[in-house]
Design a protein that fits this description.
The protein is of the alpha+beta class and about 575 residues long. The chain is built from 20 helices and 17 strands.
């Protein structure tokens, strides 16, 4: 065994590394290496330790670790691979789908950029797969393996695992739809899902894809989704999905009698509602004003204030609708009345201005004070209809259209427009319609307050859609896909991203951390792994050293609640 020995030569001390052995029974130095003086040894040691590291590499850690932990608890990769198998070569289909979902949840980008994103996260360390495996072409190839039937099967099996691992509160099940515009060219006929229809983003010039979603009221966990053509109205889609909704309702509810499906008036049709009523599905829905006009116009003096809901009063009665007895509730809300009245007033002003412009233009033409093509009575009537298209406006204006002789040309006539505001109709509107919502339920024992609170839960679904249209997290767009099959797969991993995120939030809230979904993802994404890399061959730091970025108190609580220590290398 080698040791360090000291030798003094000409008054100076030198050190050697030496190895001693017994030779003929006596200790002898059989090997030695000159090390130098103390000063020389210290100088060489200080030279081996660099003053600065070679480089620092930062990896996205917190968000990936949190959502990946949820995915592992659900067995997402194994489940997808079981239903969509491939030969054992490179990343599996489950890897591609989960990577797409994680990317959508945390840093949405195109498939051409997703390999770079993968390389910048702790997934590279955990999966040990090269970023070249996640090229855009490989993504397209693996997306092509996922059929619509496989998506449905994965969705159903995941639901079972969510219920066993995290629990599902089946009290209120909220259903609604939205749409996402695309930039798919009109000339592209390979996809039938993108169609022009009523765009909720006001992009009527673009083709769009619809998404139907059913979520739990608490934590907004998605339980069912369907991607559908952008030109299908909500009422038609709901009738098509009624059987599937009923099956999922039964699967979730079991023996829980109070489970209730909540949806908006745009989904209500006689066929769909009869199907729900016959199958015994509990529901709360809004009705259009034309359904029960007399009930909707009930004088406010007969309304009763609703306990626990400030500024809200209600009137209810029992009626037979769709062959079953239902409780119909007319809810009046002061804030809703104010909003509607402000909207009606603004539209009145706009419509008056536009009607006045049309009237003056026709008068000038008849008087010969302007030139141009003579307008016909039909064209003016069409223009007036467009002007009065906003809600309630047709009933608030009295319009008269006729023809009068043109000045200097008594044998020719031109249209004349006269209009006035119908003040009696405006009074009826404010007294009998504004601020009111018509609701219906087959919970005969529910109070008006319970019905109103259940219906207001629909804002939770709208919040989910708002999150999916977020520019930073869980974003649906951009969707660079040209076929229906690819768009359905895109919808699948976008909803999977929402599922993983909502379950992570549920776990955080149950640990006492109250944050919105975007706020939670923002906090998690700020947790990074930092690798400090020194040059090779250095004496003090021969390898990479990885640490976690400094965490705030809230981030430390999240890390503990979501058990990030199992994923983070310095956890």
């Amino acid at each position: 065994m080698a040791s360090i020995i000291k030798k003094v030569k000409k008054g100076r001390t030198y050190y050697y590394a030496a190895e001693c052995k017994r030779v003929n029974g006596k200790p002898r130095i059989v090997w030695q290496k000159y090390l130098g003086t103390v000063e020389g040894i210290v100088a060489r040691a200080e030279g081996a330790r660099p003053a600065k590291p070679k480089e620092v590499v930062v990896f996205e850690a917190g968000g990936v670790a949190a959502l990946l932990g949820i995915a592992q608890r659900l067995g997402v990769i194994d489940l997808i691979n079981e239903l969509v198998p491939k030969r054992d070569q490179g990343p599996t289909v489950g890897h591609y789908m989960l990577l797409a979902a994680l990317n959508r949840a945390l840093a949405p980008c195109s498939k051409a950029e997703i390999g770079e994103w993968y390389e910048s996260t702790i997934l590279r360390r955990l999966w040990r797969l090269p970023k070249s495996a996640f090229s855009s072409q490989r993504f397209w190839d693996h997306m092509g393996m996922v059929s619509e039937e496989a998506i449905e099967a994965v969705q159903e099996r995941l639901l079972e695992r969510v219920r066993s691992e995290f629990g599902i509160e089946p009290g209120l099940l909220l259903y609604d739809t939205t749409n996402f515009f695309t930039f798919l060219a009109t000339s592209n006929h390979r996809a039938g899902l993108p169609q022009r229809g009523h765009s909720k983003a006001k992009r009527h010039d673009l083709r769009q894809v619809g998404l139907a979603l059913m979520v739990t009221r608490k934590f907004m966990v998605p339980l069912l989704h369907r991607v559908y053509p952008g030109n299908v109205p909500d009422v038609s889609l709901f009738a098509q999905l009624a059987r599937e909704l009923i099956a999922r309702y039964r699967e979730l509810v079991g023996d829980y009698d109070d489970a209730t499906l909540v949806f908006d008036k745009g989904n209500v049709s006689d066929d769909a509602m009869e199907a729900l009523a016959v199958r015994g599905v509990r529901f709360v829905a809004a009705l259009s004003a034309n359904r029960c006009k007399e009930l909707l116009s009930t004088p406010l003096g007969r309304f009763e204030s609703v306990s626990g809901l400030a500024g809200t009063s209600a009137f209810s009665s029992i009626s037979e609708i769709w062959g079953v007895r239902c409780r119909v509730v007319v809810a009046y809300t002061e804030s809703f009345f104010t909003q509607q009245l402000a909207g009606v007033t603004q539209n009145l002003i706009k419509c008056q201005k536009m009607l006045s412009d049309v009237q003056k233009g026709l008068d000038r033409w008849r008087e010969g004070r302007c030139r141009g093509r003579r307008r016909t009575l039909a064209s003016v009537r069409k223009k007036v209809q467009e002007i009065l298209s906003p809600q309630f406006m047709k009933n608030l204006f009295r319009v008269r259209l006729d023809e009068q002789p043109i000045s200097g040309k008594p044998d020719k006539k031109a249209p004349r427009l006269a209009y006035e505001v119908d003040h009696a109709a405006f009074t009826r509107l404010t007294n009998e319609r504004l601020g009111r919502t018509l609701l219906v339920t087959n919970h005969l024992d529910w109070t008006s307050g319970q019905v109103i609170e259940a219906y207001r839960g629909l804002t939770r679904v709208e919040e989910s859609f708002k999150n999916m249209k977020n520019m930073t997290f869980i974003r649906w767009q951009p969707a660079y896909h040209w076929t229906d099959q690819k768009l359905r797969v895109h919808g699948f991993y976008c909803v999977l991203a929402l599922l993983l995120s909502t379950l992570a939030r549920k776990q955080a809230v149950q640990a006492g951390i109250e944050l919105s979904l975007p706020a939670m993802l923002k906090q998690l994404s700020a947790i990074r792994e930092v690798a400090v890399i020194y040059p090779k061959g250095t004496l003090a730091h021969p390898r990479e050293h990885i640490a976690i970025s400094r965490m705030s108190a809230k981030q430390r609580k999240l890390a503990q609640a979501l058990n990030l220590a199992t994923m983070l290398i310095a956890g």
